[in-house]
Amino acid sequence: MTEIATVAAADLGASSGRVMLARVGRDLLDLSELHRFGNEPVRVGGTLHWDVLALYRGVLDGLRAAGRAAPGGLDGIGIDSWAVDYGLLDGTGALIGNPVGYRDERTDGVMARVHEQLDPARLYAVTGLQNLPFNTIYQLVAAQGTPAADAARRLLLMPDLLAYWLTGEQGAELTNASTTGLLDARTGDWSVELITALGLDPGLFAPVRRPGERIGTLRPDVAATTGLEPSVPVYAVGSHDTASAVVGVPASGERFAYISCGTWSLVGLELPGPVLTEASRQAGFTNEAGVDGTVRYLRNVMGLWLLQESLRGWAAQGEPADLAALLAEAARQPAFVSVVDPDDPSFLAPGDMPARVADFCRRTGQPVPASRAALVRCILESLALAHARTVRQAQELAGRDVAVVHLVGGGARNELLCQLTADACGLPVVAGPVEATALGNALVQARAIGAVHGAVSDLRGLLRRHTSTLRYLPRTDPGPQAWHPARART
Question: Model-level pTM greater than 0.70?
Fold first, then answer.
């Protein structure tokens, strides 16, 4: 039995990646960041690609740092990332081109084409997945007939691709596979019915593996590059970063909603089974696989992307903003001057976000934000409204009452957003941990190694003892009723 597991958690987000070192035991949970690296897509020939080799190099550099920081050696490695994007391999196992990013325009109009062929209600009945234009199913249809698609013999989602490069073993981890629109929500395996109906080869899809399974050990060349022992195992974790983040929610009991808040806000409930009703489909809710047979019943909300793109745009113009000062000024702005729908399609692609917010306000007859602070206030109030709307709908559709909202991820640092979310929901918001994804990744590894035991609820007990959170209560002034008129404007 291993009393303390020392593991590396590689967590790749849409804007940056990092490798964390965790030491986990029955009465120990320690996490430190060793290496952080950028993740910026590159547009080549009109197509938006991920620089996957730079990401892999960042992981290798982080593992090298982990080896130096853990003189006793690593007991495991786990990788999580964003969903839906993939790499294609040829018959020799070599990558065919750079993976295309989900914000690329190649899927424009593809969803409607697929729905002419496959009834959306039937798709939902099988997959339980929210119809989003960038889901893997639509990316694959958009790529049909291209030389890369014709040459492909295997598809690997992003964390599975990196795990393959580390170990030489191919597979499809369940939580990420469940976001493709091609996995059966009831069986937890690929839907051959849907795959063949779209003219795809079922052999393209690797065998499904579950969180906690041992993938393999490091290839000799990887061990030599990182300085790690070849015997170091790589484990499947909740490789969809939201799946790991939900494990990292320090909740007690079942009456909680979660918001995994970063570039996207993933807002929902943890359930024992999928909700596949027509009302759920019409409301745009998704049923994604979680750890230990759970279902992440949620909606994707655009999240802090609107704020991130605004900050990026100002910096590119040579006028960077001090975020802390901007948030403090935004807190002093008048409430509910203008609100937008964060999920409006005009906000999806990279670009001039302040101009798009202004355009939305004009189209809906609202004042255009007159300053940067007013724009930030508009974005955060709009996001809080979307959070509250989604939490309310999830309760109604799943028949589950919620007593508290846990907000984890980078958004937990944004005090104004946390308070506005509590106000809009009319519920307490517990913010933190910021590193919920890496913690969830590490906890699943530690349990697989044998350093900790029990269900996810037991792992969350360890989180509550060893991580700090902030609690935001709904304010009575102006009170929840003040949010009702604002809701009608989006």
Answer: yes
